Amino acid sequence: MKRWIKSTGRPALSAVLFFCLAVPGLLLADEPPATVDVTKVLDDLTGGASALRIGLDTVWVLIAGILVFWMNAGFALVESGFNRSKNTVNILAKNFVVFGIATLSFWIIGWGLMFGDGNAFFGTQGLFFVSGADNSPALGAGYEAMNPFSTAVYEGVYNSINWTPIPLWAKFFFQLVFAGTAATIVSGAVAERIKFTSFLIFSFILVAVIYPISGHWIWGGGFLGSNNFRDFAGSTVVHSVGGWAALAGILFLGPRLGKYIDGKVFPIQGHNMTSASLGAIILWMGWFGFNPGSTMSAGDGSAIAYVMVITNIAAMTGAITAMITAWILVGKPDIGMLINGLLAGLVAITAPCAFVTMTSGAIIGAIGGVLVVFLTLLLDKLKIDDPVGAIPVHLGNGIWGTLALGLFYNNDIATTVAALPTGLGMLDQTLVQLKGIAVVAVYVFAASAIVWAILKFTLGIRVSKEEEIEGLDIGEHGNEAYPDFQARAR
Amino acid sequence: MKRWIKSTGRPALSAVLFFCLAVPGLLLADEPPATVDVTKVLDDLTGGASALRIGLDTVWVLIAGILVFWMNAGFALVESGFNRSKNTVNILAKNFVVFGIATLSFWIIGWGLMFGDGNAFFGTQGLFFVSGADNSPALGAGYEAMNPFSTAVYEGVYNSINWTPIPLWAKFFFQLVFAGTAATIVSGAVAERIKFTSFLIFSFILVAVIYPISGHWIWGGGFLGSNNFRDFAGSTVVHSVGGWAALAGILFLGPRLGKYIDGKVFPIQGHNMTSASLGAIILWMGWFGFNPGSTMSAGDGSAIAYVMVITNIAAMTGAITAMITAWILVGKPDIGMLINGLLAGLVAITAPCAFVTMTSGAIIGAIGGVLVVFLTLLLDKLKIDDPVGAIPVHLGNGIWGTLALGLFYNNDIATTVAALPTGLGMLDQTLVQLKGIAVVAVYVFAASAIVWAILKFTLGIRVSKEEEIEGLDIGEHGNEAYPDFQARAR
Amino acid sequence: MKRWIKSTGRPALSAVLFFCLAVPGLLLADEPPATVDVTKVLDDLTGGASALRIGLDTVWVLIAGILVFWMNAGFALVESGFNRSKNTVNILAKNFVVFGIATLSFWIIGWGLMFGDGNAFFGTQGLFFVSGADNSPALGAGYEAMNPFSTAVYEGVYNSINWTPIPLWAKFFFQLVFAGTAATIVSGAVAERIKFTSFLIFSFILVAVIYPISGHWIWGGGFLGSNNFRDFAGSTVVHSVGGWAALAGILFLGPRLGKYIDGKVFPIQGHNMTSASLGAIILWMGWFGFNPGSTMSAGDGSAIAYVMVITNIAAMTGAITAMITAWILVGKPDIGMLINGLLAGLVAITAPCAFVTMTSGAIIGAIGGVLVVFLTLLLDKLKIDDPVGAIPVHLGNGIWGTLALGLFYNNDIATTVAALPTGLGMLDQTLVQLKGIAVVAVYVFAASAIVWAILKFTLGIRVSKEEEIEGLDIGEHGNEAYPDFQARAR
């Protein structure tokens, strides 16, 4: 079915080792002869260690990728739990299909635009992954890329991500689950009123084009990364991008029926706090892949462990300060705020986790938790209806975390953990971060708004009033989420 | 509590290294002496690298095994979600106990029958694991097997699975969770009407005897594997076998009350789409252990990454084509079909994932997604009641995937990823696959039918009409799943 | 974003290897010269292997830690599922915040008390982690500790946990999730009637002080460990400690309204068996990190695999015997007993998993499953109200497992798997275990009782009757868990 490690063949080395080991033995011939085949042992070892290194890195990055993949379940549960039961099937279905769309669009074009060699703005090499990877006699160029021992071909293609020696497909998988996350962020904000097909089309464009281009600027060799902008695991690359796309969407969509009437806010309660809580724990767990996995190798265990612990601490301070802030403002420790505070801390620490001290991490999370409550109240003031709090969590804290990398920038941590020091002081780094935030904001918001606008004036993006009242589950899918209970519930 | 690595003691090697390192130093005595204990470093390294290799492989295979284990949660949620609330406790309880039964039966006899050395049909060595593993003074033979450095004993016993150097208990765990999966497939098909005890007895026999024997044919050194039949991770070994056992079961059981009346089909809606969707994501996640973990070592990171990505792509094309097919046929993107399309793609890619190109994987999943919708409709035509779609998903796509390995067979991929090339062309490989499918079909269906028949005419396999109407939760367990809500629901 | 492995610089070794490799070549000058840079390869290899070892161990321990972290979701779901829907939000919220509290309290003081060098009773070095880890110019002492290659500082501080070479933060994360588990055990027992704030204060004290001190006795270099008391993964350190704290709590709290009336027991049914079952599978999965991860290195794959399998077998025999015992005593295979039997087997095997044979593991689990049913009935006789069965599961089986380590003690397994043989016979080991159980019992119960008493007579620990009847979700949080369904349910 499977096999043990490939022979990696290093005959020249074996020959040298043979002399090294055999000759002294000849000189002292009265010594007992070796009872093990030393040449073989050392040869195995040498070959084995290269494969071991790649095996270990691959295992770590893929497991981290699985944890990020798992965040799909977290988003599905938090989003559906925070919305009404009549729209549950729609939200769940969106979460499945959006990852399918992301897989295909990132495979076809997104990966190449993001990580392909090219100019400062987008990749121009290895654009169509499918043709690069699975083409020509003996499977051709891309197939070679699969084999880490024959990297000749893709090293001229995806240089921006060649700092980690894991196989190309491992890189692809890890980056794919990140791209899928960005699309899922939008899903929550536009819930309970968006047309299923229009959402799918937007998601395709987001993951195929919009997300990879700004990603290229920061992680793919583009102008922001080369100008010292830093974002370790994606507060901006993933979360703000998803957040800006979502904000554009809900501005075009408008609030749900009944949310704002005569200047008053009528809170719409989510139908399942068990779902929402389980989803939040899943997201938290997934972040242990998201942030520490962004080392994309296991070559430095200390860095992985550091990022793991700081991620958890920021999550916890975020949850606690959000709970306390809500307690003070509304009188009770509301579970929705607790959950969004947790997520706020996680989003905020995503960029700076490898650039700041542990104590700074605790402070960044704590501020994130306060911020999320105030931003939620602000959105209601502005009558911007965001059913799950995606804007406060992903956009607000994505910006905050990216900025915090500058404000709390520590060169020793940057050198040791991130291995990407800029040498800039706090002020300069903060200015660089600010510029990056602004550039991404303008680009993603504008690009998303154009797509949403086109969709609005062609296919339409909002379901009918009747369907919104009855629920999208019946209208879009012909299903009910809980038919044994729901007839009575509606 | 615990410790660092054992000293592995290789004195002969140390001696040789000593001479290698010390003698040249003597010849050039004016050189600075070594400031580190080189002998020790290299000795540690040599011993360490062997232990590293085994440690890494063990960690990878056990984590993959944990992911497959986790599929128990996925099956429990998909099955209970797709059925009515009044049978939820019964389905959940079955899922717990069936894994308990599987653990014990595979430990007692199944493992030995499957992987023990023997003839072309079943294992005859190391049959009773308990006695092989935990017996005689100083714990005896089996205990030695636990220690990878003293493999003398079990190498003469489980040769078919000695291609991977992981410890025996790691092999056992990984194979156990596979065996448990086969039994769980049956659970969904027979839901809402089977007697609890009869199901437990069938599961015991399936995992103790039926599953290991056909498994031996393919993975345990038996006649199918040695005749070039290939099944990387178990489209046939696990999924079709479970599917045939389930099909035999539901033919003996008959449809649920009220499903088919006067030639018409009355769909019975599942009670919880949140459960079903979460379960589906869990299964999908589990497959990232099921398929890539079937490398059973981390010696080739590229192979693991390749299998991971192709598994995900087939899942996604399956979900999307099933959704579109349902959309065309019934007018809406039904979530049940979306979920079963996802699972269909996963089952279909399980056999060929290490033998076909990435594009072929996308096509195999896409066809699986269409197939699952048509098979679901066909079963209803035939009045075969399969509450969760286990037959379309696991049997139909298990067959399809096994066949697809032949139809899309690529020798380069087989050589590089699976390391098990047959050298046969597409046509010949397809014929070999077809023969294997047929042999397994006849054997498993017949053996299962005999067991179901004996159970039917002794203990009985179906609950009373009264119990079926009231629900098996009360009847079999004296529990309700949702007592706060259910009185109103029934 | 990140980088490949750091150069680890071992010039002395390189020099020696150079002579080893170059000199023989000079002696046989007619031999072909090496075509690879052997010195570099071996140097990379040596440096690489150290980093590989640490990388692999870190990855394994952190993944195991993530699995233990994941048990938070399991506890949240089992506890909320076994209770009524009107208290669901409260239970879920407690589970979030208690981990936040645990993170902060263990970071601030708990870790130092437990693993800091000190006397036989508690740690006195490295007490305040925050100052040790993140202090002074260039981040100072603690920051060095993060780097495994400069361990000078913390080796004089945390000697008791220096047997594993993983980075300090990896040790911290793994131990933190254990500490969090102990606090969560209390949560279930005091459910449906405890004041939110009082519970949070108790949790803080438990994780900051009570848990680390008894932990120090056993794992931190204290008097129990040095007197041959053994507890591989925490039947006593974690589960009994949590259990004693819980028992003290519910004695002060008293039973829920309506549970015991006029000498009769009125069972209060849990609201969601889907939640409870999913939670139980999550806990089971988490235990595959809890027990095998307690190796805290991947240096011995065999030990990890052994502990994995014995953990699963004990879980399964526990589930099956509990089901059968309930079947005999109450006439049906109750799912609550099935789940608690599973957990009982897991708790019971936690101490002895690396000290007993596989068959002994099966027996220990089986006895645990019977025990949990009888203890549950006993508690009701005594009118001690434990809504989730935390006392039978964690306290009863924590004690049983710790004792079983002695009763089934096998020196060969202890030497090979745990690497911590005592050489004591069965009787002597059992006596040692008994003494340890008694000492921990007296200490934890007394300390907890004092804290509960102070809380009771200051802030109060029980909600008002009105709030208990209406549900804590409204009273403590102003939320409902299932607003679409619940108005009708109450």
From TrEMBL, chains A, B, C:
PANTHER family: AMMONIUM TRANSPORTER, AMMONIUM TRANSPORTER SLL0108-RELATED
Name the UniProt record assigns to this protein: Ammonium transporter
Region forming the signal peptide: 1-29
SUPFAM superfamilies, alphabetized: Ammonium transporter
Family: Belongs to the ammonia transporter channel (TC 1.A.11.2) family.
An example Gene Ontology CC term for this record: plasma membrane
Residues annotated as domain Ammonium transporter AmtB-like: 59-482
Matching Pfam families: Ammonium_transp
TM segment ranges: 59-79, 91-114, 172-191, 198-220, 232-253, 273-291, 303-330, 337-357, 363-379, 391-410, 430-455
InterPro entries per record: Ammonium/urea_transptr (IPR029020), Ammonium_transpt (IPR001905), Ammonium_transpt_CS (IPR018047), NH4_transpt_AmtB-like_dom (IPR024041)
Compartments reported by the entry: Cell membrane; Membrane
Topology in the lipid bilayer: Multi-pass membrane protein
Upper classification of the organism: Bacteria, Pseudomonadati, Spirochaetota, Spirochaetia, Leptospirales
Keyword terms of this UniProt record: Ammonia transport, Membrane, Signal, Transmembrane, Transmembrane helix, Transport
PROSITE patterns: AMMONIUM_TRANSP
One GO term (biological process): ammonium homeostasis
GO molecular function, one term: ammonium channel activity
Major localization listed first in the record, in broad terms: membrane
Claim: Transport is one of the keywords in the record: yes
